[in-house]
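Q: Structure tokens for this one, please.
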Amino acid sequence: MGGMSAVDTCKRLKAEYGFDLDVERLLADGHDFLEEHLEKDVTARPEVVNIVHHVRGLGHKTAVASAGRKAHVHTTLNRIAITHLFDAIITAEDAVRSKPHPDLFLAAAARIGVDPRDCVVLEDSPRGKEAADAAGMACVLVEPA
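A: Here is the predicted structure, written as tokens:
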């Protein structure tokens, strides 16, 4: 269920499998666990970082559009030392709907002042690709490491 918000994931698990999860408790425990592991277990995808460097070298703007929470996304980007490569960082808190809806990508394009049709998305989930397609953006699906 990559690319889905945690709340949407819990709703889907309940609808499809009958799991009645305490979403607030899961989120609190999950966020603490994730933050702890993001601090030490995250590594950059060299091929993706190289693409971002290349695109910036050509003078284009870059943005992150993640369904993750702001704190987690910033922890990840800081941990792999690439925050400075992005002109905008859009997270779950910046959009009403998460992927596969286009809201995150459209917010990123607006923030950097680029027409969505002129954007190219590097995405690692099928739901993210759906969102990029819905936003009218070209998309390259990068398989998870």
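A few notes: The beta strands are 63-65, 88-90, 120-123, 138-141. The chain has one domain: 6-141.
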